[in-house]
Amino acid sequence: MADDPVALEARLEQSWRTNAFAWTRAVREERIASRRAGTDAAVVDAVLHTRATRVLDVGCGEGWLARTLALEGCTVVGVDASPELIAEANELGGARFEVATYAQLSARAEEWGRFDTAVCNFALLGEDLHTPLRALHGLLHEGGTLIVQTVHPWVACGSAPYVNGWRDETFADFGGDFRASMPWYFRTLTAWAEAIHTAGFRIERWSEPVDAASGRPLSLLVHAVPLKADAAAG
After folding, report:
1. How many independent structural domains does the chain possess?
2. DSSP readout, 81-118?
């Protein structure tokens, strides 16, 4: 894939607008095997384990996670850069849903207030992690928690070299009318740790939900807490 990060980030964002309807159907019709096998349950359990009252669901898509957490008693704001996906989320309601890009998150702090937990469920797909993670650092209460679920680097690497770089998702396994492929940025485990630390967080633990049928990891879950400003600067 051509190495033009700006163009690739733009394509990534546009793909979620182009594929909003197809993605919504894939989620609501439970077509995605890894979700059925355990990634949905894993991220819900991770957030509930934090005992959060207020949750920010970053990259909320059509809103399934926000709705699920709201039913568990959380007050949830779901945000996504795709107006089309937010329209799908608002169609079912169940939580507060708003359009915002990662670059706009910091500007919404006064409006939204601070959160106990921010969750990014397969939502950190671009090369630039610093912008969203630093914004989330400012949106969390002291003592709050960041939960990130992402593809497991060992599994997602496949037969390609284990190095950071852009890949392409065609959604071929999800069925439906996906009209655009999605560029996404593959990271090694070390790169994830460095990005989270650089943004001012301390990783408390990693977890690896496993597919009971295959014995292979379904995803990587990161549980992190924001450091104080002086500690983050050091």
Report:
1. 1
2. S-HHHHHHHHHH-SSEEEE--GGGTGGGHHHH--EEEE
What is the per-residue pLDDT across 180-231, written as a single tens digit (0 to 9) for each?
A: 999 999 999 999 999 999 999 999 999 999 999 999 999 999 999 999 865 5
> Can you tell me the distance from the alpha carbon of 234 to that of 213, in angstroms, rounded to the nearest whole number?
44
Question: Whole-model pTM above 0.70?
Answer: yes
Residue type, 142: E
Q: Which residue is associated with the tokens 């890949």?
A: 167
Q: Residue 91: is it exposed, middle or buried by C-beta count within 10 angstroms (0-12/13-18/19+)?
A: exposed
Q: Contact 155/217 with Cβ under 8 angstroms?
A: yes
From 153, 168, 151, 146, select the one nearest 55 (Cα to Cα): 146
CATH number at residue 75: 3.40.50.150
Amino acid at 77: V
Identify the DSSP state of 170.
Answer: -
CB within 8 Å of 25: residues ≥ 6 apart: 31, 176
Predicted pLDDT at 175: 83
Q: What is the pLDDT of residues 118-133, one digit of tens each?
A: 999 999 999 999 999 9
Range of 184's domain? Answer: 5-233
Query: Given this model, what pLDDT does residue 163 score?
Result: 97
In sequence order, the β-bridge partners of residue 79 are 58, 98
Query: What is the torsion angle, in degrees rounded to the nearest 10, for the CA atoms of residue 153, residue 212, residue 225 and residue 73?
Result: 130
CB 146 within 8 A of CB 219: no
